[in-house]
Amino acid sequence: MLLAFDVGNTNTLIGLCRISGPAIDHSSILATWRVSSSATRLPDEWYALLDPLLRTCGATVDQISAVVIGSVVPDVRRWLADMCRSRLQLDPIVVSAALDTGIRVATERPLATGADRIANAVAALAIAGAPSIVVDFGTATNIEVIDRDGDLIGGAIAPGAALVLDALTSRAAQLSAVPMRFPPTRGIGRDTTAAVQSGSVAGYLDLIEGTVRRIREELGVDAPVLTTGGLAGVFVAASDVLRAHEPLLTLLGLRAIALRQDGVVEDRRRPARETVSANGDFAVSDVLLIQ
């Protein structure tokens, strides 16, 4: 089985996936877990976290034959890669534009393009075709643009909706935290809470919809829009522009990228280490279970 790590700035989504099947296959994602993206969580701590999570769905670490990491947090990426090598005896697939991802990253600086944006584009190209647009609502809201040729050509990055609301209420002395609820009761807020919701929630939707319209004008076509990310559901139901919602879009893209790499359908483990038992006999320390 394949383990996919979608590491965001705030949370990490872990997906347990089947390796067999089509490149984009919703049923291939067997289980998901969301944990914090702690940059101080060491390799052994990641392993200690991973084992009980897998057991909740009847799996074990010995059944993992490949790992793919898409991370926007360098420290977490490093600790996860170290965990894979030291505890799972696996060389992880670390997503970047340097890999054969199945999509051409035609930005000005391809190697600086985030792994999450690449994975989103790969999945969107398979699901919606070209051209298409992805809006990923996270700590930052990323908009990915795939052109008529099927290339990832860039997009837009805005502060996330929760970040905007937090910044407003933390910097303004007389504004307290309000729930992110849509739709607000009205555009003209008659009290402070309603006014903040109108400006920060409805206004944020206008920001994203306006950016998508501008991108469509530049593309010269009303390209389909896919949305993903933790906050997407708040906005999709109220939007005429943001209609299609794929909550696991990034994981689907990570899995599709992993399947393109050599040997991923086989066991990517290093040879099992031999150790000497108490009676002097050799024993294999790792039992490999291959799907």
What can you see in these coordinates?
The chain has 291 residues and is of the alpha/beta class. The protein folds into 2 domains: 2-94 and 261-284, 2-Layer Sandwich (Nucleotidyltransferase, domain 5), CATH 3.30.420.40; 110-250, ATPase, nucleotide binding domain (Nucleotidyltransferase, domain 5, 2-Layer Sandwich), CATH 3.30.420.40. The chain has helices at 43-55, 74-87, 115-128, 161-171, 192-219, 232-236, 249-259; strands at 2-7, 11-17, 29-36, 66-71, 93-94, 132-137, 140-146, 152-159, 225-228, 244-245, 274-276, 282-284. The strands form 3 sheets. The chain has a 5-stranded mixed beta sheet, with helices on both faces. A hairpin with a 5-residue loop joins β7 and β8 (152-159). It is globular.
Structural class: alpha/beta
Give the oligomeric state.
single chain
Provide the CATH architecture of the largest domain. 2-Layer Sandwich
| Outline | globular
Question: Do you know the CATH topology of the largest domain?
Answer: Nucleotidyltransferase, domain 5
The helix/strand order is EEEHEHEHEEEHHEHEHEE
| Quantity of strands, as a count | 12
Total count of domains: 2
The DSSP helix count reads 7
- CATH H-tier superfamily of the largest domain: ATPase, nucleotide binding domain
Radius of gyration: 21 Å
Distance between the termini: 6 Å
CATH class of the largest domain: Alpha Beta
Low-pLDDT regions: 271-291
Q: Please, what is the average pLDDT? A: 88
Kindly state the percentage of residues in helix: 25-40%
